[in-house]
Amino acid sequence: MPEKPGKTRFAATESGALVCEDGLVRPPWAAVDPLLRDYYDTEWGMPVRDERGVFERISLEAFQAGLSWATILRKRPAFRTAFDGFDPDTVAGYGEEDVERLMGDASIVRNERKIRATVRNARAAVALRGAGGLVDLVWSFRPERTPAPARVEDIPTESPESAALAGALRRAGFSFTGPTTVFALMEAIGMVDTHLVDSHRRGTSGVWTRS
């Protein structure tokens, strides 16, 4: 899950969420920064069921490791340009000259291990098409129930399903996909709903009910 910001002028609820100036309740990480607020309100937790979309989110979650989500989100347009829209077929064909190009691109995160992992993961995604595909693999680990956190501190950072999916992705050739990173992916694409029970976004994905 994206990081929490520092102090804010907004009033806190009993859950630890914040009541923003528009009267809506949001978790601390999404309450202050306009970019993060818009991402929370319109995108985070909505279902993603296309190969390119899931591959992009796997890639960005990997790049976020050790960094803030705000940093990755601000760089997302540059990432999309640098990685050809995260088209798995195109990225799977990258060679050393592309790695060098990406390492020279100051508009993205220039981490060679993560860049090379993204290329490997694209190749793994392409290879999975013969066994149902990346989307089917990822969504097959959707849990029977979703968390219903009443307080910020109740929001989990991993689950048995994220650990199992991390193992399945690793066996399929993916890297930078540990249980915590995978749980963040599951949150982002709607496989679990970890919106606080007093959030206006709870149950809005169409995947889970509000209760």
TrEMBL record:
Its EC number is 3.2.2.20. SUPFAM superfamilies: DNA-glycosylase. It holds the Pfam family Adenine_glyco. GO terms for molecular function: DNA-3-methyladenine glycosylase activity. InterPro entries: Adenine_glyco, DNA-3mA_glycosylase, DNA_glycosylase. Keywords: Glycosidase, Hydrolase. PANTHER family: DNA-3-METHYLADENINE GLYCOSYLASE 1, DNA-3-METHYLADENINE GLYCOSYLASE I. This is DNA-3-methyladenine glycosylase I. It comes from Nocardiopsis tropica.
